[in-house]
Automatic annotation (TrEMBL):
UniProt KW keywords: Cell membrane, Membrane, Sugar transport, Transmembrane, Transmembrane helix, Transport
Locations listed in the record: Cell membrane
Regions that span the bilayer: 33-55, 75-95, 102-121, 127-150, 162-184, 190-211, 267-287, 307-328, 340-358, 364-388, 400-419, 425-446
Any one Pfam family match given in the protein's UniProt record, by short name: Sugar_tr
Matching SUPFAM superfamilies: MFS general substrate transporter
Domain Major facilitator superfamily (MFS) profile: from-to ranges: 37-454
Membrane topology according to the record: Multi-pass membrane protein
Chief place of localization: membrane
Single Gene Ontology MF annotation: transmembrane transporter activity
Name used for this protein in its record: SP family arabinose:H+ symporter-like MFS transporter/SP family xylose:H+ symportor-like MFS transporter
One cellular component term from this protein's GO annotations in UniProt: plasma membrane
Length: 468
């Protein structure tokens, strides 16, 4: 609802009517509305995490059902990442043409269809086909959800709201572990494990009818009036006017970009930083833990039921420590969390390598695995998506995010698919030693190349990085 200049929407942080504030320069953010949109979009993260990790409890069962060797098993687990790479490429194109909201709805439908399709596949090629199509949904959602969250959030809240996306991924992982454990003794258990993702997918689809479109996409599409309504609902009239002016200026000052223009000298360094952040986030070792947790615990001497229960503990740890990042990211900043996280993961990966090499008890393996999960969840996990969602300029955000997430999923595929092979030929100690080296390299990259972006609007970040 429009107001006179200097007055603001009568909305407190819960979204309820209160007495209005007045006076130039004051902004009263409708946190309830921002959190509602964030919660809806973050449901895509739940499906992301659920879909990626649900396979961890099914490996031994579908491997026996289809009679797979180690290479075929790695392909079955890792092929979703190739689908996600395709989804990233398509998502970058579709989110610019259809909008963020419509693409999210397409992803929700794909999640619902492919869950049952994978679970009740009649043969291995059909299993792979549905698993890769599910990956398309994961890749597109991983691209568009952080973009949407960044574009609807005011600068002081952006780190927190985009971190909700990582929290939702963590919730999805936790739900997948619980689902696997609860369905362990059911007939055709692996089929029901996969099929269970259709339930949150349908919830996501119907929730999106309550969401608004991104104001930045609306302005780019020439729908300024609709964008103004969304911005005013977020922060009142003065906020809407100021934000709209900045956003329109960011588009007016730049020529139209396509994919090849990502290599222009004024933006190529930004794209490179984004790609490196995306790749390193996937090769530090978390995929070896999340995708093969029960198998790791069994190698450490734990029984099957115990291994599945330990996987739930991993999910709970992941969930709890994500709140550390949510509370710290807008205070400590993105760069500091990436630095601390990568160095601590380096030390923990060394400890895991030693634990497996020296054949320490399963309890020590559990401790180091949980420490690794906790560190990743408090630092690299959420900060990666925040950084990727905000460092790219408005005009190239969709295409640049597509390139970064494409690189992310390719890295994810190789680390996930190669783990059984590396374990067979090199052993788990050497595998985690390699992860430790990668973590150390990432530490130095962050220290020398990654800028700090906390507390700045997307347009301010754009100006800062294009000057550097």
């Amino acid at each position: 609802m429009a107001q006179a200049p200097g007055t603001f929407s009568n909305l407190d942080k819960t979204g309820l009517n209160t007495s209005g504030l007045s006076g130039p320069g004051l902004v009263q953010i409708n946190k309830g509305y921002v959190y509602l949109l964030s919660a809806i979009a973050a449901l895509g993260g739940i499906l992301f995490g659920f879909d990626l990790v649900i396979i961890s409890g099914t490996v031994g069962f579908f491997q026996a059902h289809f009679g797979l060797n180690e290479l075929e098993t790695g392909w079955a687990v890792g092929c979703i990442n190739l689908g996600a790479a395709i989804g990233a490429v398509l998502g970058g194109w579709l989110c610019e043409r259809l909008g963020r909201k419509k693409l999210l709805m397409i992803c929700a439908i794909l999640f619902a269809v492919t869950g049952g399709g994978t679970g009740w596949a009649e043969n291995f090629p059909m299993f792979i086909g549905f698993r890769m199509l599910s990956g398309v949904a994961v890749g597109a959602a991983a691209l568009v959800c952080p973009i949407y969250l960044a574009e609807i959030s005011p600068a002081p809240m952006r780190g927190t709201t985009v971190s909700f996306y990582q929290l939702s991924i963590v919730v999805g992982i936790l739900l997948a572990y619980f689902s696997n454990y609860m369905l362990l003794d059911v007939e055709d258990n692996w089929r029901w494990m996969f099929s269970s993702q259709s339930i949150p997918a349908l919830l996501f689809y119907f929730s999106l009818f309550m969401a608004s479109e991104s104001p930045r996409w609306l302005i780019r599409a020439g729908r300024e009036f609709e964008a103004h309504i969304v911005l005013e609902r977020v922060g009142g009239l003065d906020y809407a006017l100021a934000e709209q002016e900045q956003i329109e200026q960011s588009f007016a000052d730049k020529a139209e970009y396509n994919v090849t223009d990502l290599f222009r000298k004024d933006v190529v360094h930004i794209v490179f930083i984004g790609v490196m952040i995306a790749v390193f986030s996937q090769i530090v070792g978390q995929n070896s833990i999340f995708s093969y947790a029960p198998e790791l615990f069994k190698k450490a001497g734990m029984a099957q039921n115990s291994a599945f229960l330990q996987s739930i503990i991993i999910g709970v740890t992941n969930f709890v420590f994500t709140f550390v990042a949510i509370g710290a990211i807008d205070k400590a900043g993105r760069k500091k969390l990436l630095q601390y996280g990568s160095f601590l993961l380096f030390l923990d990966a060394l400890a895991l390598s030693a634990a497996f090499y020296l054949q320490w008890s399963g309890l020590w393996v559990l401790v180091f695995v949980l420490a690794f999960v906790g560190i990743y969840s408090a630092t690299l996990g959420p900060v990666t998506w925040v950084a990727l969602s905000e460092i790219f300029p408005n005009r190239i955000r969709g295409n640049a995010m597509a390139v970064a997430t494409l690189a992310l999923w390719i890295a994810n595929f190789f680390t996930t698919a190669l783990f059984p092979v590396m374990n067979q030929y090199f052993g788990i100690p050497v595998t985690f030693l390699i992860h430790a080296a990668v973590c150390l390299v990432y530490y130095f990259f962050v220290r020398t190349s990654v800028p700090e972006t906390k507390g700045r609007s997307l347009e301010e970040i754009e100006k800062l990085l294009q000057k550097s």
